[in-house]
Amino acid sequence: MTEDTEYKKLPVEERCVHKLWKARVDGYEEAAKIFRELDDEKSPEWSKFAGLIKKMVVDSNAMAQEKGLEAALIFVENSGLAGRTVGDVMTGIVQKCIAAPKTKTKELSVQVTLMYVEIEKQDAVVEELVKGMEAKNPKIVSACVAATTQALRDFGNKVISVKPLIKKLAPLMSDRDKAVRDEGKQLAVEIYRWIGAAMKQQISTLPQVTLKELEDEFDKLKGERAEPSRYLKSQQEKQAKLAEVAAENEEAYNEEDGDAGVEEVDPMDLMDPVDILSKLPKDFYDKLEEKKWTLRKESLEVLEKLLTDHPKLENGEYGALVSALKKVITKDSNVVLVAMAGKCLALLAKGLAKRFSTYASACVPSLLEKFKEKKPNVVTALREAIDAIYPSTSLEAQQESIVESLANKNPSVKSETALFLARALTRTQPTALNKKLLKLLTTTLVKTLNEPDPTVRDSSAEALGTLMKLMGEKAVAPLLTDIDALKMGKIKECHDKAEIKIKVAGLKKEARPASAPPAKAAAPARAAAGSVEPKPVTRPATTGARKVLKKPAGPSGGSASSSGTVAASKGSGKALATERELAPEEVQAKAEEILPADILSGLVDSNWKNRLASVEQLLGDITSYDAKQAGISQVLIRTISGRKPGLKEMNFQVLKFKLDVIRSVAESYPLTTTTVDQVINEITEKLADAKNGTAAADVLTAFAEATKLEYVVGKVLTFAFEQKSPKVQSEAFNWVNKSITEFGFQLQPKTLIEDVRKGVQSTNPTVRGAAIQLVGTMAMYMGNALMMFFDSEKPALKSQIQVEFDKNVGEKPPKPVRGVQKTSGGGASNSAENEEEEGGAAEEETINITDLLPRVDIAPQITESLLKEMSDKDWKTRNEGLTKLQAIISEARLIKPSIGDLAPALAHRLVDSNAKIAQTALSICEQLATAMGAGCRSYVRTLFPGFLHALGDNKSFVRAAALNCINCFGEKGGYKEFFEAEMIADALKGGSPALKSELYAWLADKLPGLPPKSVSKEDLHAIVPHLYAHICDRNADVRKNANEAVLGIMIHLGYEALVRALDKQKPASKKDISAALDKARPNLPVKPLPKGKQQAPIAEEPKAKTVRGGGGSAGSGAAGGIPKSSSARSAGGQDKQPAPTRKKDEDIDTSPLLAINNAKNQRLLDEQKMKVIKWNFTSPRDELYDILREQMTVANVNKALLANMFHDDFRYHLKVIEQLSEDLAENSKGLICNLDLILKWLTLRFYDTNPSVLIKGLDYLDQVFQMLIDIEYILAENEGSSFVPHLLMKIGDPKDAVRNGVRRVLRQVILVFPFAKVFGYVMEGLKSKNARQRTECLDELTFLIESYGMNICPPAAVREIARQISDRDNSVRSAALNCVVQIFFIAGEKTYKMIGQLNEKDLSMLDERIKRTKKTKKPDPPAAEVQRPSTTRSAAVPQQDSIEIEDAVVGNGCDELPLDEEGLVSALIERGLETTAGLYQRRVQEGSRPSKRPIGRNPKSCNEKHL
Length: 1507
Hints:
Blueprint: H1 2-6, H2 12-16, H3 21-37, H4 45-49, H5 53-57, H6 62-78, H7 86-97, H8 103-118, H9 122-132, H10 138-155, H11 163-173, H12 178-195, H13 208-220, H14 233-248, H15 250-257, H16 284-288, H17 293-309, H18 319-331, H19 335-352, H20 357-370, H21 376-389, H22 399-406, H23 411-425, H24 435-449, H25 454-471, H26 473-476, H27 485-497, H28 522-529, H29 584-594, H30 597-603, H31 608-621, H32 632-642, H33 652-668, H34 673-685, H35 693-706, H36 709-722, H37 726-743, H38 749-760, H39 765-782, H40 795-808, H41 832-837, H42 864-870, H43 875-892, H44 902-910, H45 915-932, H46 940-951, H47 956-973, H48 983-990, H49 993-1006, H50 1017-1021, H51 1024-1031, H52 1036-1053, H53 1055-1061, H54 1067-1080, H55 1126-1133, H56 1139-1147, H57 1159-1168, H58 1182-1194, H59 1199-1205, H60 1210-1224, H61 1228-1233, H62 1235-1246, H63 1251-1270, H64 1277-1281, H65 1284-1289, H66 1296-1309, H67 1315-1325, H68 1331-1348, H69 1355-1363, H70 1370-1387, H71 1390-1394, H72 1400-1416, H73 1429-1436, H74 1461-1470, H75 1474-1485, H76 1502-1506
């Protein structure tokens, strides 16, 4: 018996590997108990057992194996290290457990398997289970299949990938073992339950009998909705909240989910891609060129069969194949072959999916043009082809081709283009259509809606109806105001019939009110997880509460005139209000109803004085009429202008009053363009009037404000150029100039520029001068690009324009002061909903000036002969072809994006063997990007691989040209397309070292500056494995640039995502990669807090609270008796109310961040009496947070600051440090009074994982200690002891910035805290397991001994330092030797006696170091010149006067106990603190009385006393 129980004395880890099975059972049980008690998933205890888990599950004893599986289950569920064990443990489970004889063993093995899936190791689990399906033992096979089925049933197909499982169905269902076949059948049924009909194509090769059985099983599942019953750990909290909300809003959820159904799975995702290019016959292209159509047909039939047999295609160079098919479609006269080529193109586009986008821009225009063909089979094939191509491109990319085809002369082309647009819109997200594109498509379709051909009209109506269905009536209806009722009815009919075929991504409905309590979800989360006997594990709090989506802001978001940039007119999306034009008789009748008879008769009086009196009276009464009367503005204005003499009034006084009346009407009543049109020409003419020109200009401004500036400017300039009067033209330009500065640039520049060019070309110098001044104003808004419009002018005129241009370009435009202020009347008033639609108008896209210039279509000049010349075998001929191409582009200057087959031909020249030709091709590509503008993005996929090839060239001039070309394409068309189709990943995978180095340098330069969502995360993830491989590359340049590129990729993917990707790397390279990630992490830009969440929510105060360490309750104030500020009292005195009703009051806390009081003395006394836990810990505990929060509450720390301090989101901590830094200069007394609390809070931040907070905190500490040094403050014992040890803990941080910051702060601490005590804390740091920390501590000890001598270093410390010479870490040994050498230089030969016994090796190392250092050591200065740092500092810093704090009774809150004995004792007794007074008297008698020194008075230094 003694032998049997002897093993119980062994540690648990040793029992787990004991040779006796009973000992192992006991060890496994003890391990399970330990696992249950650990509540921190990162506890170091887990690492002791991580290597033992596999041995537990493969134990040879059945009972021990069962206990081992139980322990493994708890380990996997609760340990943060579980993910590392998945490979070994799953291999053991598949081989030894999953088919074990004991039922419980099998069940436990499945539970462990599912738990690995739950902790997001599903890929490794499925991989091992699939390997198990190939085992020879049928029991293992069937058990693995069953476990896989169970995992799929619990977690669903989004977690468990079905692609590798489908491949296994055929062998499983044809296995000779019945159990395997049955389990395979169950797996097939489960897969079908999740992905539906998509799997039928994959199992079509199974025997008919088996298929029949499966079809019967599938029929039973019809209508059943598959939902996961268990979730990944990362999903559980979210799902628990959703479950809670669903319970509260059951009806709403049922309503929403009713139509959800099963998510469709694309069958293509389940197939493996095939390379068909290698399978094409060698004579394929030759046959396609044959004159005999049957031979061409044979060639197409071969291609069609290949594409039909292999639906999913591998990525490759399909340019030649696409060009060949396009040529057949566009040029072949045989309609059968055209239809076949169209079908092949459709299959090719489907097989390549998104990767076909490279060729889409070249194919779409040709297909649309070919719709002129009337044969039904051809039209059907073309429809299939263009519909298959559309998913790989977008409407924005093809907008020019679509608009051009809709303007085609052939009705069939127009009709089929409109139908294609309608079909495309059913598969488009609304977000893909910006306002500019929406307006372009709508206006183009409105034109075709009025075509004489009925088919075109019907197709256009269908497209408009589908567009309205997709974008919503609010967005489209304002653009359809000019359409008659009959056509509008047809559009509405098509709108009702249209069916959007994709799931539109939009804002989710708010599931619960924002004020709902966020934290009830722990229990449901674990229940949903489905784990056996789940043990609650305490996890760190998540960052922030659940985000509630809010509706977009209404019209109050900003005024219509808030933008001063070149933007599309803010009213451009909103139709101008119109009304019916009244007949003269109606105007007269309504005027007689509204206006007095004497005014009407006076307006037509022949005596100018009577007319003057009438208009003067009318001007006084003008605002008194009813604004709701229909057409009142038209009646009033037409009465003024229509009654003779009207606006042709000869008397300047009467005319002025008439113009003032019209202006008042425009400002006071709703105005329509119908009314404006009646008088605007006459008013424009009056601009030339010397006496009333200003009044006329004011009327035009009022019209622009009431309607739209763009409309009025257009009318004014059109009329002005119809006049022969130069005065009218010049004054019109002057008014436009002034209006732009008042309204902002709310104009379409294209029309305005045309009119301005007419003005600058005028022969009249006044007109020309006014137009040139207007150009100068426009230059402020439009920049340098505006000058391009005047390049063709005469040199003298051009120089005048340039002078005015130079005055204004680069100037900041003035802030707009006018805009649309009221809704338009006349039956077209705008509702609040319309205003909300226009709410974002201030953020319109800026207009690209080059888009306003006419572009040349160079496609006809890109002939076949030119392309053949460019691809000739003779390099001189190729060079001539490229030179011709350069001339074509140079002559055109600005070109349309349609360049025919030029892009593929240029791509071949980019990789030309002749470096000069490659360089020329690169310069042509750069020239193309400049000439084409944003349209160049369509050709990135074709040309970018060639750019990358050139970027890796061994010639520097080629690399430089490639880099310039890439940057030019990026600036003109954006960088998004560069990262698509894994082009960069492919280049990094197989490129030369030069290419890798240059490409990483480019990524490091460009990625940090790109907007966060401008590059797809999936595309960047493809680069990560290559980045990790090259961080450890043999080439130094590749390594260096790869390390620099880490930051850019981290900005877009996040630190956590890159750390997760690290799991797949080899252990040898993980260290270097982790170091690179940690080095880049501090440089990550901090995401700003949301605008509405700049302040953390302030917690409600409980009615009564016992404060540990505060010396009293929260209601009674600080121990010292400092009364609360009025704001603090009012906040504390309120009754407890629900959070939403008190939020506004609490968020506004105007009290100082840190209050001036003397509570610090009480906190010191409480710590001395052990009333409060000392601030010593290795990792922060919850109770320490609670104590600090309570102490800060008692000290009257600002509530908003306190809420931010204890928020879980690190961004609030950064805000706290920023606020404290700003407050330091103004409120240094407050900081000194609360210094212990601030230092404690910062020590908690030392244990956070975010480096930004740590580095900012150290910068703040640098400022704090500099201030303390300047006033010669001395840290109290509790302040130093609660701060310095934690500061030293960070001196071994892996990041240089942190270590440097800690060293800097520590050197400052020595000047305000006894260095002997600092020496003791540094000695404690030598016990650390972190070698870097030990090294840094030894360096600090060397500094202290050198600065303050051997008095601070007792012999025991010397022996401890000498022991470090034998450390296994080289840097520690070196630092220890340096420290002992420093002691030797002070103590001499006594050092050998102090260091004690050293082995011969260490002693010889020390002797060698001493000899070597003696040679390089400088002689010591004379003794008189030697000064200690403390005395030097006292001399250098001017003595500061004592700081007096008002209302201080007990001490001044800034030192330990500064009052004299009698005063302090009496003050303590007055406050009812007799015990504290007695303690103080005893300490005085024992000789430990604190210093009487007032703050700021330090005769020498605190360190002199300790010496």
